């Protein structure tokens, strides 16, 4: 065979939205032209009402027609960034909230307690409280601000003692706070025993520098994570803390 090889037509790219709309309009006009050519036949067979409906249907655009399809770009939206940490359900499933009664050593938590003392000293400004004569009295200066700070503070690592309780066996129990829930405080005593203390029936005391802080557990029944973002409200809760 001689001569140049004839090249076939190049494949055309899919029509864009504008081209598809133009083609669909041409198809609609073609349907109307064909209808006009057979209009006399339908006028003899159909009533004016049915003829009007038929003409209206022919003027509609049919989305299922290939000529009417409009190709839209799919926008892949990025959802909210997923947290890399574990959910509460997963933490419970693997037992992160289940602390053994034995196995923890009190001496291992002393650095945590020292760290908590430094945290509270800087957080509350104990030197400033002492200079301003703030002793937990409602009439003392900066009382409301101090109560808000104490309410939102984190007490993991504090050395807490049960001063009063409706259950006599709980009175005098003390230790470093290892874990806090809405209803319980888990204290590790010097005998290396972890004890679960209910908040509802107890009054607690803890040492804070030159101050001694006391609070009722029933007014403290909030998770520590929620307490840090909630505001202390009401006169009943303002008397939650008192300095002796």
UniProtKB/TrEMBL annotation:
Coiled coil: none annotated. It comes from the Eukaryota. One of its GO terms (molecular function) is ribonuclease P RNA binding. Residues 1-32 are annotated as: Disordered. One of its GO terms (cellular component) is ribonuclease MRP complex. SMART domains: POP4. GO terms for biological process: rRNA processing; tRNA 5'-leader removal. Pfam families: RNase_P-MRP_p29. Belongs to the eukaryotic/archaeal RNase P protein component 1 family. Component of nuclear RNase P and RNase MRP ribonucleoproteins. RNase P consists of a catalytic RNA moiety and 10 different protein chains; POP1, POP4, POP5, POP7, RPP14, RPP21, RPP25, RPP30, RPP38 and RPP40. Within the RNase P complex, POP1, POP7 and RPP25 form the 'finger' subcomplex, POP5, RPP14, RPP40 and homodimeric RPP30 form the 'palm' subcomplex, and RPP21, POP4 and RPP38 form the 'wrist' subcomplex. All subunits of the RNase P complex interact with the catalytic RNA. Several subunits of RNase P are also part of the RNase MRP complex. This is Ribonuclease P protein subunit p29. It comes from Cimex lectularius (Bed bug). The lineage of its organism: Eukaryota, Metazoa, Ecdysozoa, Arthropoda, Hexapoda.
